[in-house]
Design brief:
The complex is a heterodimer.
Chain A (H helix, E strand, L loop, with lengths): L1 H16 L2 H22 L2 H8 L5 H31 L2 H5 L4 H6 L5 H35 L9 H23 L3 H24 L7 H13 L3 H13 L8 H23 L3
Helix pairs in contact in A: 1-7, 2-7, 4-7, 4-8, 4-11, 7-8, 8-9, 8-11, 8-12, 9-10
Chain B lengths: L1 E13 L6 E13 L3 E5 L6 H8 L7 E6 L2 E2 L9 E4 L11 H11 L4 H14 L15 H12 L6 E5 L7 H16 L3 E5 L3 H7 L2 E6 L2 E7 H5 E10 L5 H10 L1 E6 L2 E5 L3 H13 L4 E8 L2 H17 L1
Parallel strand pairs in B: 3-8, 3-9, 6-7, 7-8
Antiparallel strand pairs in B: 1-2, 1-4, 4-5, 9-10, 11-13, 11-14, 12-13
Helix pairs in contact in B: 2-3
Classes of the chains: A mainly alpha, B alpha/beta.
Chain lengths: ~270, ~325
């Protein structure tokens, strides 16, 4: 455990040295300043009263929660893409000749190395997402004088989604000692495959065609991490303090993460450097 | 006791899609006595670095076993007792020299005041104290090498594996590294040295092994490897008369090198004694007889050429 903590801590330092934090912080600060400026110019009271003419407190809270999600959702997605981009090289750099020799000459197992890097990169992303989400939450809450304490929990969902996609980046990083294949695969899953499978799954009952095709799509749907649902419905429900609803996307994505990390570990333990 | 025992190890590297195969090590047996400085020599691609990597489980053999300090090399906890300087090592560029040592010290199980003290001691030893706070990315090759040696010694290891330790180091630095190795030997540490610099190895090593294309072609002490068994240098009191000289030269392989210095190539010790008897019978006074030695470099080149010729046949 101690070795995992050491590697994670030095991954944070590496991210700091590579300006990952500054880069994320700059984007977050620009967004937060923009948000504050927009709120100072817009009369939100009139907007709220038009959306909730009866002035029902419960409806008002729901409207504010929706506004929080509408504002932060696109940026969360952008942050996720940037997070994958900025953390994709951690594993290939670690596996470079000269680096890995030094690390493996120390009393640390390959599993500890892998988990240390993985946890470290996930922590880097978590810290950056917390900064952005908490900043947006504070500004919106101050403006509307309503503190939705469920909203900060979306940081956990975004970080979990990152962790799932990052396991793919790590796997390809170990296989090819390069960041590009993993990054492209993670983007493909996040931007195309998961939304497409989600859509097809919803339409599956109404689709006409061969049963074999339907079964294949169904199997693929359950195998591929459900980032579309995680960043969509589940993120929204948690942000609004509602029940998650269907837990299947979380569980199957978590299972995918665990299996991928196990596979990464298996390959890493067999690999010659 | 042996610090390293390699038993029948073979390693073949296979390229992508298994098109090309390279035998890095072929049925290698090797023992390194504890408390000695052992030099491993060989041309590029001989399998020297592969052997070290197998010993550290950085790569794995196709067959055979290896033991370090009487333990299976696959046990990673064994590395608490080992120090390693890889060839062309890279430290995290965002760390300073002191921070890099702290990082690897922590991974070696050290911490707190004990680690800080050790870092200062080692930086002093490798003459890097003044560069402690400079980022590693600003270091020259020689400085990186010195820091690498400090890193290899951070856990006060029983066995130190050094791959080209003097690579990129100036002559004064090389002398300092040799002194460090000699000091380690006095502390009963075992040093396993990979180097292209044969003169360096000759100066510090107790035993030497020569690898070529993954095969061990010779092993022994530097003395054993460099002495020419039947060739002697003779220094006489005076130059021999021409008549006596030609007479001797017709009986044995005897030749004048310069003035009173002669060389004799004999078949065995009996023939050498006969030569001495003949000289003494003619009242020629012998000042010194020395068995001729070749330098490690000469011996190395001749062995490698010999091995290559055999392979070509």
């Amino acid at each position: 455990m101690k070795n995992i903590i050491i590697i994670s801590w030095y991954t944070l330092r590496e991210a700091f040295a590579r300006k990952v934090f500054i880069f994320f912080a700059a984007i977050s600060v620009i967004f937060l300043i923009g948000l504050a400026v927009v709120f100072s110019l817009v009369n939100t009271d009139s907007i709220l009263s038009s959306m909730n003419p009866a002035g029902d407190k419960l409806v008002l809270e729901q409207v504010i929660s929706q506004i929080q999600l509408v504002i932060t959702a696109p940026l969360s997605n952008l942050c996720l893409l940037l997070a994958i981009f900025s953390s994709a090289s951690f594993i290939p750099i670690m596996l470079e000749k000269g680096n890995i020799d030094l690390l493996l000459s120390k009393p640390i197992s390959r599993t500890q190395l892998l988990l240390g890097k993985y946890v470290g990169a996930t922590l880097v992303v978590f810290i950056n997402i917390v900064f952005l989400i908490l900043g947006a939450w504070i500004i919106i809450s101050l403006k509307f004088s309503y503190w939705n304490f469920n909203f900060p929990l979306v940081t956990l969902v975004i970080t979990f989604t990152f962790a799932v996609l990052y396991s793919v980046v790590v796997l390809f990083g170990i296989l090819f000692k390069s960041s590009v294949p993993g990054m492209m695969t993670a983007y493909f899953i996040f931007l195309i495959l998961s939304p497409a499978l989600h859509f097809v799954k919803l339409q599956l009952q109404t689709l006409t065609g061969k049963e074999v095709f339907k079964s294949m799509v169904d199997s693929l749907y359950y195998f591929i991490p459900k980032t579309s649902e995680l960043m969509g419905t589940i993120n929204s429900n948690i942000g609004q303090g509602k029940a998650i609803g269907d837990i299947q996307p979380v569980l199957s994505s978590f299972l995918f993460l665990i299996l991928t990390i196990f596979f990464c570990d298996y390959i890493l333990r067999k690999k010659d450097f | 006791m042996n610090a390293i025992e390699v038993i029948n190890i073979s390693k073949t590297y296979t390229s992508s899609f298994r098109k090309n195969k390279v035998d890095a090590l072929v049925n290698l047996d090797l023992s390194v006595p504890a408390g000695s400085i052992f030099g491993l020599l060989g041309p590029n691609g001989a399998g020297k670095t592969t052997l070290i990597k197998i010993l550290l489980s950085i790569c794995f053999p196709n067959s055979g076993t290896a033991k370090i300090l009487n333990e299976d090399t696959r046990n990673y906890k064994l590395k608490y007792r080992i120090g390693y300087l890889p060839e062309n090592h890279k430290f995290p560029s965002y760390l300073s020299g002191g921070e890099a040592l702290k990082y690897f010290g922590k991974l070696s199980g050290l911490n707190g005041v004990q680690l800080d003290k050790k870092i200062d001691e080692l930086l002093e030893l490798v003459k890097m104290t003044q560069w402690k706070k400079l980022k590693v990315k600003g270091y020259s090759k020689g400085m990186m090498q010195r820091l690498g040696i400090a890193q290899a010694l951070i856990n006060d290891p029983e066995l130190i594996l050094l791959d080209e330790p003097t690579d990129g180091v100036d002559p004064i630095g090389r002398k300092e590294i040799r002194d460090i190795l000699a000091d380690l030997k006095t502390k009963n540490k075992t040093v396993f040295l990979n180097s292209h610099l044969l003169s360096e190895v000759e100066m510090v090593s107790d035993r030497v092994a020569i690898l070529n294309k993954g095969i061990l072609i010779r092993e022994g002490t530097v003395k054993e490897l460099t002495e020419k068994k039947h060739e002697y240098l003779l220094e006489l009191e005076n130059k021999i008369d021409d008549e006596v000289y030609f007479n001797l030269a017709s009986q044995v392989n005897f030749a004048q090198i310069k003035d009173e210095h002669y060389t004799a190539l004999v078949t065995d010790i009996v023939e050498l004694n006969k030569l001495i008897d003949t000289l003494r019978a003619k009242n020629i006074s012998i000042k010194e007889i020395i068995q001729k030695k070749s330098s490690l470099e000469e011996m190395f080149i001749s062995l490698i050429n010999e091995a290559d010729k055999k392979n070509n046949v």
